[in-house]
Amino acid sequence: MIPDRLGHDFSKYQNIIKEIRKTQYSHSGIVFLPDGRKYVLVLLSIDLIDFDDGTGLLQNISKMIYEYMMEN
Fold first, then answer.
1. CA 3-5-7 angle, 5° bins
2. What are residue 9's phi and psi, to 5 degrees?
3. Contact, 31 vs 42, CB < 8 A?
4. Which end of the chain is more exposed for a tag (fewer CB within 10 A), N or C?
């Protein structure tokens, strides 16, 4: 989920997805940038009314963080 909207610029990504309960999910991973830097991203969600909308929102957050890291 996290790398879905990052495009093709990132070189590697390690992902751990764990269903904690039926309504709570933890998405975490290490994002490896092309220049060798890396960062850890953890996204948590709970009680999603619409799973697809919630997933899209978390993907957008991931993309925003990735773009920030690429520019700085």
1. 85
2. -80, -25
3. no
4. C
Mean pLDDT of 36-44: 89
Give me the torsion for CA of 10, 11, 12, 18, rounded to 10°. Answer: 10
Concatenated DSSP letters for 28-62?
A: EEEEEPTTS-EEEEEEEEES-SSHHHHHHHHHHHH
How would you classify residue 48: left for phi > 0, otherwise alpha for psi between -120 and 50, otherwise beta? beta
Instruction: Tell me the β-bridge partners of 29.
Output: 15, 41
User: Which has more confidence, 58 or 24?
Assistant: 58
> How many CB atoms are closer than 10 A to CB 28?
15
Q: Give CA–CA dist 51/16, Å, rounded.
A: 18
Structure tokens at 28: 């975490």
Hunting for tokens 């909207």 — which residue is that?
5
Q: How many residues does the chain have?
A: 72
